[in-house]
Write a structure and sequence with these properties.
It is a single chain. With 203 residues, this protein is of the alpha/beta class. The chain contains four helices and twelve strands. It has a single domain, classed as Rossmann fold. Helices cover 21% and strands 37% of the residues. Helix 1 packs across helix 2. It is globular, with a radius of gyration of 18 Å. About 8% of the residues have low confidence.
Amino acid sequence: MKFKPPNSLLFFVNLGFFKIAMAKTVQLHDKTFETYISEAEILAAIGEMAERMNRDFEGKTPIFLGVLNGAFMFHADLVRHFNGPCEVGFVRYGSYVGTESTGEVVQLLGLDTAWLRDREVIILEDIVDTGNTVERILSDFESAGLKRPFIATLFYKPEAFQKDYKVDYVAMEIPNAFIVGYGLDYDGLGRNLPDVYQIVETQ
């Protein structure tokens, strides 16, 4: 699903009267963010992804392995829509400082290789932009002698993606802008926001 950025003015009809609502903004640390993608749109995209996984993994018991911290909301909502038996787990990697990726991915919570061996594993990422984090995860799986996992991401930035591997499941494609909310953060803040916000660039 490709997402078209909204206009700053949102028009809607209520009881026969036209109303105009300005996009909501939030302040996180020194940055201002404005509404970008609603929770309803996110959940609809996750539901479509879950339907595809229900078909692809029918009769199997996959492991949904979420990448902390950003994927915790995505992980919970996707698993709720998976109809078959499954197991869940988490790994943790880090590469961001503020709004920029350092390009260096550090493993903070490792893989339980004995549990994952010979299993159908689906990595759940909040966002794939440069692709560095998933590349590191794939390398760790290969080094441990594990099967290649499937890669599923809530958000995908094709303009920023720099790698050759395949992203198997994409809920939403978005432009290359910094976003927060629905699990994604700016220096620790914003993960609890139900909608997604994009940064307001200052002149």
